[in-house]
Predict the structure.
Amino acid sequence: NSVEVRARVSGYLDSVDFKDGQMVKKGDLLFTIDKRTFKNALDQAQATLTQAKSNLAYAKANLERGQSLVKENTITQQIFEQRVQAARNAQASLNSAEAEVRQAKLNLEFTELRAPIDGRIGARQVSPGNLVTGGTSGNTTLLATIVSTDPIYFEFTFDEASYLRYKRMGTANDDIASQRDSVPVTLKLMDEKTFDHDGRMDFVNNVIDKGTGTILGRAVFKNPHDLFT
């Protein structure tokens, strides 16, 4: 598995919290973007929320008074309906303010970029002090890449005859796919004489390449000592 580390918010990079090439665990802090702007936005959103709560409390109290007044014909039905509408608007404003606070908290949280998977991280692509472009568009700044190492995928191609033998390794029941996935695969590295590394089939492509007559397969190997790259 390979993941490109990109920010969800834009800002100046405050710190890089790893060493190039080190192993990282899921959740480890990798980069920190300057938090001050996002803290200010959260404070403002919380202040707006406080005001919205106050407005709603006033509107509800005014509506409750109006319910008794309209029964006594002290106020008109139109004025009472205006109070009902004011209470609804105050509730809607409160809901909007709560959503803004949630978003502001998320943006503040996004200033800390953490590893989404276990693996080895490559070299940083941006140094502290640079402006990082975040978001969900294609113009975001690539900060680093993490590649999982244990287990690791091994992709290879095999010919049509080998593919047919593989297809016939299952039995005529509904569990053929899982049986094929358990097919053992062995490999050796270029400086080794024997096939001493054991893995299991994980995936076979759905198309045979017309040009080469081969199909892509994939096996999974344990890699506790980081031998495979």
About this structure: Helices lie at 36-71, 77-109, 160-167, 176-181. The CA atoms of residues 20 and 123 lie 5 Å apart. The chain has a mean pLDDT of 89. The longest strand covers residues 152-159.
